[in-house]
Amino acid sequence: MTETAYQGAGVDIAAKMGIIERIARAVKATQTPQVLAGVGAFGGLFQLTDDLILVASTDGIGTKTALAGAIGRYHGLGVDIVNHCVNDILCQGARPLFFMDYIAASKLHPDQIVEVVEGMAEACAAAGCALLGGETAEMSGVYQPDQFDVAATIVGLVDRVTLLPTTDIAPGDVLLGLESSGPHTNGYSLIRRLFDPHADATWIDALIEPHRSYLAPVTAIRAAQPIKALAHITGGGFFDNIPRVLPAKLGVEIVRESWPIPHLFAEIARRGKVAEAEMFHVFNMGIGMVIIAAPEAAAAIVAASHAFPIHRIGSVTALTAETDARVILR
After folding, report:
1. Which of 98, 173, 199, 309 has CB atoms 3.0–4.6 Å from 179's, for a disulfide?
2. In 250-301, where do the E strands start and end?
3. Which residues have CB under 8 Å from 78's CB, separation 6+?
4. For residue range 234-267, what is the model confidence (pLDDT) as tens digits?
């Protein structure tokens, strides 16, 4: 896939995936017998006891910070980073225990930092997660003036019997998509090239809407009906994230017209002349979390979501010699 628009904005998804593949050997050399998941999972798994497993994940907000900074709205960034991390470990069935942040800037502005951390605290409280601590750093000469970065680590806990994904994913299983609240925390290097935060004021609220948490609806769904896997649609879109939870020799077919794609994504594609395949490789396109489940469970899952926007968006397929693409758009 040629990612001309996103590469032109300074981001190369293929290069990122290549780096992950190259560092896998070095990472694997450090792993002890308690490590249960390899590179590529949404969270790292560390066996705590025979029955309990710690799940950890580290992530950042990316260049959404620059857009929020241009309009002086920082609270949502704290919500962004917490919910992103909560969703990542949720993909393995974990409930969050604690969260730690890192904020670096050319120069620290106290009011900005406080507003970001207040957003973190709000989102942590909603998730039942302790904001355990953090670190700030002034790095003049490394960051551009008035620019800053936010990253964090989360640790959660899962019982082995509820660990995801399960081992019985099979052709014919259904994909159910939980709606996103917007681009979440991905694609902002491209977005910032296409939208002026002052001239495009009508789009700003949609662009900086915080990353949605799926903890509550997924918890309700799992209490009512078994599921097989969860895939958080973040950087890499559908093409890179859904395969992370699939067994070898399985892929998925996505039916593009099975959910209402928000107008914002159509506007991004129009302004940037971005091909449809690249849009699905960069953005969540209105689906922030994908559930994989047995087809007979679909109706019960929709009912258990308690009116949270959810759509049946595709199915699991077997790869063939003729079709080795792991994600196909129909």
Report:
1. 309
2. 250-254, 287-293
3. 115, 116, 117, 118, 119, 120, 121, 122, 123, 150
4. 999 999 999 999 999 999 999 999 999 999 999 9
